[in-house]
Design goal:
Number of domains: 3
Strand order of the largest sheet: 4-3-7-6-5
Largest sheet: 5 strands, mixed
Radius of gyration: 35 Å
CATH superfamily of the largest domain: GAF domain
Strand content: 15-25%
Number of strands: 7
Shape: elongated
CATH architecture of the largest domain: 2-Layer Sandwich
Order of helices and strands: HHEEHHEHEHEHEEH
Structural class: alpha+beta
CATH class of the largest domain: Alpha Beta
Length: 249
């Protein structure tokens, strides 16, 4: 090939490249203009429904579908998402209703309790059965050695150093769900502490610190930090009020 031919070929390539670049720029400008027009006239498909049958959107597989089919697919996905959300809302509603019924029955039973032993028995039975706890315990604080000695499983010394593990919880009246320290589990569950994988701890407070409720589960996910504590906190207030009445008698 002569030098002249080589030069001519190079010139043709450059011209072709410029033409392709120009065409791309022109196409981009046209598309931008079209997008702008569609945004300004977003009801155009309502005024010209025949366009729906002409518009096509390619699938990833390479085939094409009409815009209507594409819209139907999107609507189906939205419907599935909404159905999932609705089912979750219904589940939460049923759970809340069940918890409300549990608290209501407990309230009625506590009204008929004769003494602290009745209160403790009712509370432990209810929380164990209704909340599927593997371990449930109540610890009441006392400064009377005789009472502590007689009911060592129920009463603990209000000055016990082990209570420092619950200091913040008692100060702020915080119910805790999920993990707890080894000291807290040992204090509440004793020899069973090593089997407890998740806990709920409810402070009992009515004017003064009355005690603690500990709920333990062998399942690590039974009580977790993402669970709402409102039910447990309100139940704790109810139990505290009942205990305070019987402590005064």
């Amino acid at each position: 090939m002569s030098k002249t031919e080589i030069i001519e070929n190079r010139v043709k390539k450059q011209v072709s490249t410029k033409e392709e670049t120009s065409e791309c720029e022109q196409q981009l400008a046209t598309e931008l203009q079209l997008v702008s027009l569609l945004r300004e006239n977003n009801d155009i498909l309502l005024r010209h429904p025949e366009l729906l049958t002409l518009l096509e959107i390619p699938h990833q597989s390479g085939s094409a579908v009409s815009l209507i089919e594409r819209q139907v697919g999107v609507l189906r996905q939205q419907l599935k998402s909404q159905e999932k959300q609705l089912l979750e809302m219904m589940t939460h509603a049923r759970d809340n209703e069940r918890l409300t019924q549990i608290r209501h029955r407990l309230s009625l039973n506590l009204l008929s309790a004769h003494d602290i032993d009745d209160v403790v028995s009712l509370v432990l039975d209810t929380l164990t059965n209704e909340l599927s706890a593997d371990h449930a315990v109540i610890k009441l604080f006392s400064d009377k050695p005789q009472k502590i000695k007689q009911s060592s499983g129920l009463y603990v010394d209000s000055k016990d150093e082990a209570l420092t593990a619950f200091k913040t919880m008692l100060q702020h009246k915080n119910t805790v769900c999920g993990k707890s320290s080894s000291e807290q589990k040992a204090f509440l569950f004793g020899e069973q502490a090593e089997n407890v994988r998740s806990v709920a701890i409810i402070p009992l407070i009515s004017g003064a610190n009355l005690g603690l409720i500990g709920l333990g589960a062998n399942n690590v996910s039974r009580f977790n930090a993402s669970m709402g504590t409102e039910f447990l906190s309100q139940t704790g207030e109810l139990i505290s009020a009942s205990l305070a009445v019987h402590m005064e008698t």
